[in-house]
Amino acid sequence: MDDYNAMSRRAAELVAGELHANPEAVIAVPTGATPQGFYAQLVALHRQGAFDASRLRVFQLDDYVGASADDPHSFYAWIKRDFLDPLGIASAQVTRLRGDRADIWRACHEYDAALRAVGGLDLAVLGLGGNGHIGFNEPPADPTSATHSTALSAETIAAHTRYWGEGIPVPSRAVTCGMANLLAARRQVVLVAGAEKRAILRRMVDGPVSAQVPASWLWRSAGCVIVADAAAWGRAPGVI
Ligand code: F6R
Fold first, then answer.
1. Spatial separation of the C-alpha atoms in residues 231 and 120, rounded to whole Å
2. Mean pLDDT of 100-127
3. Residue 226: its H or E element
4. Which of 21, 89, 90, 216 has the highest local Cβ count within 10 Å?
């Protein structure tokens, strides 16, 4: 796509089409800088009647350990602001991934059981971490991993300071939907924007499948589509 807005629009059209075709879809969606335009466009398409969100089932993709739902930095608060509330998605339609639970292992286990009970993800909308992470599946990643808590890498913590603000410590651990669930999704739409993602996108697409680049597993899944802007793709624009 030739610029960020066009990339966001294309991604929103793709996802709106998927949701129109399957109004009961089981989906996971990302936070971060990349999807901001996508959410704005998706909400606009929803207002125009492109799809019905009243029966969607949303599984939270990831969150920081220790961040409560009331914390505006939590990923739950973030998707509520950008996605759940604007689309009128009720909390009963959402399975949270609770980084604020005392027993994180149990929280992950219950999340996986709930996801299994609905037959897995139909659609995973994802961003690409600067180190190749998908969700918070940090390298080295295990493609068979269940939902789990993980230490965040120094690179990811540094990248996330912009969301917390100067002087506010970024949590050192996160919970994430496991690679096994993301790889099993029937459709994965990966949003990538900006020149700073170009090198890792190249490694995802052209490099060997490697635990060091978790996204490289995803790219080999039959359902994976990348929507990138020209700055990230560095070649003729397009949906890859
Ligand atoms: C966030 C998430 C992360 C981000 C990735 C890119 O829910 O799962 O994998 O998608 O860190 O973040 P941005 O878009 O801020 O560069």
1. 33
2. 97
3. strand 224-228
4. 216
Q: Which two tokens mark 159?
A: 């990248």
Annotated catalytic residue within 131, 137, 181, 229: 131
Helix boundaries (H) for the chain: 4-21, 36-47, 75-79, 104-117, 154-164, 179-184, 198-206, 214-219, 230-233
User: What are the pLDDT digits (tens) for 20-71?
Assistant: 999 999 999 999 999 999 999 999 999 999 999 999 999 999 999 999 888 9
Q: How far is the CA of 159 from the centre of ligand 1 (A)?
A: 9
Beta carbons of 226 and 201 less than 8 angstroms apart? yes
Catalytic residue status for 22: no
Which H or E element spans position 78? helix 75-79
Q: Order across the sheet with 123-127: list the strands.
A: 94-95, 57-59, 26-28, 123-127, 187-192, 224-228, 238-239
160 flagged as catalytic: no
Expressed in angstroms and rounded, the spacing between residue 128 Cα and the centre of ligand 1 is 6
How remote is the CA of residue 127 from the centroid of ligand 1, in Å? 5
